[in-house]
Amino acid sequence: MHLAKHVLIVDDEKRIREVVEYALEKDGFRVSSAADGLLALAAVERDPPDLVVLDVMLPGLDGLSVCRKIRNLRQTPILFLSARADEVDRIVGLELGGDDYLVKPFSPRELVARVRAVLRRFDVPSGAPAAENQSRALCHGKLKLDIDRHEATFAGERVQLTATEFQVLAALLERPGIVLSRAQLLQRAYSDDLHVTERTLDSHVRRIRAKFRGLGGDPIATVHGVGYKASDA
Known about the structure:
- It is a single chain.
- By secondary structure, this protein is of the alpha/beta class.
- The chain has two domains: 117 residues, 3-Layer(aba) Sandwich (Rossmann fold); 101 residues, Winged helix-like DNA-binding domain superfamily/Winged helix DNA-binding domain (Arc Repressor Mutant, subunit A, Orthogonal Bundle).
- The protein has nine helices and twelve strands.
């Protein structure tokens, strides 16, 4: 029996929580909610969700701080909500580990579509044969991406990546030695309904590099004026 994906909604506006909860439950998700950051962190510990819908402007502990703390616990996908549409907010949110960003007011139908898109990037199709999953393991130098388990290792050490960071690396490892322009990498690593800029891509590349730096490696090489490729380092 297929278990429904669990989505945690974190927003201090009761009406938004109710609208989002109704839309997601109608689409087959299991939903829980929290009205502030501290309650959200407790909920993540008590009943870990498959995805968090997280408002940026929360009372007390704001959404960006909640994101940081969640990222210290696990790599649960995060979709930010905010009334602020400026590019700086978008970049900051995604740099902290968010996987998508939706501006208020939004259509409940669009939110459901975004949730599904983020979860598709995170999941391997449940009906895929084991042999197919194994054949999709990607290795390059000391780096290995296990597509089946959604795990990254470098020289045998586990590296925690968000769903989006994993997809960026996977797109590069699928064509080792080939330089991908930023436009090509955006097309390969992000879903069609996720609107991101080259600046956002660069932010994700910086985050990926920072995570591997402590292990003495850098899985991405910059080819100045062209784009990025998988690195042997």
